[in-house]
Structure formats: structure tokens, C-alpha cells
Specification:
Helices cover 26% and strands 27% of the residues. The protein has eleven helices and 23 strands. The strands form six sheets. Strands 5, 6, 7, 8, 11, 12, 13 and 23 form an eight-stranded mixed beta sheet that branches. The longest helix has 20 residues, at 125-144.
């Protein structure tokens, strides 16, 4: 199905791709946007109210969010948003570089973090990015199709039960560290000796089994005791890489993803409520039951089709394609590439656009001669010299060092990259 706008950019009911192809061939419409594919009519449509109901369904997750648009029991659009997972690491790296610079014999930069105040309802940037991705796409879809309802999976994860399914009674309220401090608990747990070499009666240090730099957390089951020599020798390795698989097995599955959803689920609900559409909430258990009843595979976009009570008993898929939307951000304020020690290794241009292009634009290149002769499609990587590259869906450079005069813009970069694949219903 293809999104349709009238000449005044008012959203109309979607049409079949064959109808869209006919309108484009007859010159009655033009391509408005490539992803998601949208056409715009060259004449205003009759001013009639839309009688169809279009429901946007959202299966919210910490790394991926499924989207689906249903018209009664017809699925007319499927998509999956891949959220950014690199924000926290970039903020940590920036903080480390700034602290290191203050300790070197360079121009002193006063710390300014004490001057900043957090607004009411503040959440970390890594979580805010996920909320803003959903907000962006709800607003965009409202401009492309006359949505009337939203169904949202407002799920809450019980981390206590996920960690220990058999916990009950007063133990559920007390938790693991009831009556202990962390160091005392670890000393009792590991017999007051180093977990790696077994030395006793020496100073012991609290150590992460999976280092924080490798995705480990401060949960109590990821902590152990080690002497100074073993701690330094282990360095950035996991316990398994260090040769202690039995210690590694004590680490339980991380609850990061569950915590992300728990922290932001009401933020997402509030922004959906403020969109002006009728919002319906559902649980994760109901989504799973509907998906099993309909016989659909476990995918985020199929889960989105099954969210809440409004899910029909039978679904008819009017589309076979899934649009994968990857959040990439809109660039960085940093104008210098840094090495792992924080020293500059290259300087970036202080501009985004070069000869009418910016890095990330989807382009078509018609190269008449040379090594890359032919027609190429992909994302452009710009240089100040005017010699551009093209990247494919996997981010690999397939064309390098081609003059910008052979390029034409298919769609300008909007903070996301796109790829379309066929949904597998088996």
C-alpha cells in the first residue's frame, strides 16, 4: 500500500501500488517521499471526510519498536524502528576526554557541570532518544495517513520475578542484600578469599565479572572479590576469558532492556495521549496470546499487529514489505576525530552541506565511464573536495572517489536510514 497526499498535503486513504503506478504514469501524481513511499496528487481531492478507521499499533521495546497500521482486519503497513544504543558510550567517552584534558598541561577548561539544572521529568539522553523516535514517527505518520486510533503495549517487567521466578512472600520485598552491605555480602558469599587465585587474609577488591566497559552492570551477581594482582591482571577481560568459567556462570541475564522499558513507558504513553488520537493500552501477555492465536512468527512488527483488545480474529496482509528504520542522529558538535587516548587525529569540516549534498542523503549516481561505470543507489558520504562515496545497506563503501556532478538526491537525510525487506509469514 502507498500513502497518498492531495495537492494541499492533506493525507488521504492509502492506495494499492498498482493504482499509484498508474497515477504516476498518467502524470496525475508525483513522488513525494521515497521512504515511506508516498505520492502527492497534482489536483486537490474533493473535500470529503474520511470514513475509514486507521489504527496505529506500537510494540515498544528497548532496542527495537514494531509499528503496524491496520484498517479493520487489513494490515496495510509494517515497520520496525531500531533505536540507538551508542549514546551512553559516547557521553562516557566525552566525559573521560574532558577530565583527561583538565589534568594535562593544556589550556584549563573550568568544569561547568555544577551550573546545569535538570528540568522536571528529566530522563537520561539514551532513554530520551527512544521516546523521541516514537514521537517523531507518530507525528510523521499522522501527516501521511488519517490515523484515528493508537494501540500501545504498555508493558511493565517485574525484575524480581525475572531474576528469581520462585520468589514469594516477604523475600519478594526484602531482596538479595537484606541485612547486608555489599562488601560484607560478597565476603560471606566467596568465603573471604580471592575468587581467582584463592588467597586468603589479604586485602580484597570488589571486581566486575563482566567489566562495565564490556556491557557489565553493578548488579550484585556481577560482582566478586579479587586480590590486587588478579584484578590488575584480569584487566578488561571477562571471567570466562580470564579462564574462570565457573565464576562467569554466576552472572545472570542483564535486566538493562527491562529497566529501559519500565523507565520510559509512561513517557511514551503521555506523548501518544497528547497526539490527539484515542489511545488504547494492552499488556505483553495479551500480545503474545493474540500472536499465537493468529499463528504469526515472533517479530516486532508482527507483535505490533497483535497489541491490545482491538486485534481482530483474522488478519489479511495487504503488504508484504517491512520498512526497517534505523535511528542515526543528526551529526555531532565535535569537529575533531579522536584516538582512543583523546588526542586529535583528524579535523572535520565546519559545514554539513557540500555542493548541495550532506552525508547520509540517499542518492542515485549515473557514472558514464571508469571503474564504477553504471547506475548506483545508496547513502552518500561527502568530502569537501567534491569527491563522494556511496554506501550500501550494510554501510560498506561500494563506490569511492566519484565526482559530485554525477549524483542526484533521491531523499535528503532526516536522521534515519532505511531498508525494505519482505516479511516472512511462516
Amino acid at each position: 500500500m502507498v500513502f497518498v497526499l492531495d495537492a494541499n498535503k492533506k493525507p488521504l486513504s492509502p492506495c494499492h501500488e498498482a493504482v499509484a503506478r498508474k497515477l504516476l504514469k498518467q502524470g496525475k501524481a508525483a513522488i513525494f517521499k521515497k521512504y515511506p513511499f508516498t505520492i502527492i496528487l497534482k489536483k486537490s481531492a474533493e473535500d470529503t471526510k474520511n470514513k475509514q478507521e486507521y489504527r496505529l499499533k506500537i510494540d515498544y521495546g528497548s532496542k527495537h519498536t514494531g509499528l503496524a497500521i491496520l484498517q479493520n482486519n487489513n494490515v496495510i503497513w509494517l515497520a520496525q524502528i531500531d533505536h540507538r544504543t551508542d549514546i551512553k558510550k559516547k557521553l562516557d567517552d566525552r566525559r573521560m576526554f574532558r577530565r583527561n584534558r583538565r589534568n594535562r598541561r593544556t589550556r584549563y577548561r573550568k568544569p561547568r557541570f555544577l551550573n546545569r539544572k535538570r528540568k522536571e521529568g528529566w530522563i537520561p539522553p539514551s532513554l530520551e532518544s527512544r521516546v523521541n523516535n516514537i514521537k517523531t514517527w507518530v507525528n510523521r505518520l499522522q501527516k501521511l495517513i488519517p490515523l484515528t486510533h493508537i494501540s500501545y503495549e504498555n508493558v511493565k517487567f517485574d525484575t524480581q520475578l525475572m531474576q528469581n521466578p520462585e520468589i514469594s512472600g516477604i523475600e519478594y520485598q526484602q531482596g538479595t542484600l537484606q541485612g547486608y552491605e555489599i562488601r560484607e555480602y560478597l565476603l560471606e558469599k566467596f568465603g573471604r578469599k580471592c575468587c581467582y587465585c584463592g588467597k586468603e587474609n589479604i586485602p580484597l577488591e570488589i571486581e566486575h565479572i563482566i567489566p562495565k566497559s564490556r556491557g557489565g552492570t553493578n548488579r550484585i551477581d556481577n560482582l566478586c572479590l579479587a586480590c590486587h594482582e588478579c584484578n590488575q591482571k584480569k584487566g578488561n577481560m571477562t571471567a570466562e576469558e580470564f579462564g574462570y568459567l565457573d565464576i562467569q556462570k554466576q552472572v545472570k541475564q542483564t535486566l538493562k532492556d527491562s529497566s529501559v522499558v519500565n523507565s520510559t513507558r509512561w513517557k511514551v504513553y503521555n506523548l501518544l495521549y497528547n497526539s490527539g488520537l484515542e489511545v488504547e493500552c494492552g499488556t505483553g501477555a495479551l500480545t503474545k496470546m493474540n500472536r499465537i492465536k493468529l499463528g504469526l512468527p515472533k517479530e516486532h512488527y508482527f507483535d505490533a499487529c497483535c497489541v491490545s483488545q482491538s486485534t481482530p480474529d483474522k488478519l489479511y496482509f495487504k503488504t508484504k514489505n517491512v520498512l526497517y528504520i534505523k535511528a542515526k542522529g543528526r551529526g555531532s558538535h565535535c569537529r575533531t576525530n579522536l584516538d582512543k587516548y583523546g588526542f586529535p587525529r583528524g579535523y572535520l569540516a565546519r559545514q554539513k552541506y557540500f555542493f548541495g549534498f550532506q552525508t547520509g542523503d540517499m542518492v542515485k549516481a549515473e557514472i558514464p565511464k571508469g571503474k564504477y561505470k553504471g547506475i548506483w543507489y545508496g547513502e552518500v558520504a561527502c568530502r569537501k573536495s567534491g569527491s563522494f562515496d556511496i554506501k550500501d545497506k550494510e554501510g560498506q563503501r561500494v563506490v569511492q572517489g566519484v565526482n559530485h556532478k554525477y549524483f542526484s538526491v533521491v531523499q535528503h537525510f532526516d536522521g534515519y536510514s532505511y531498508r525494505k525487506e519482505v516479511a516472512i509469514l511462516i
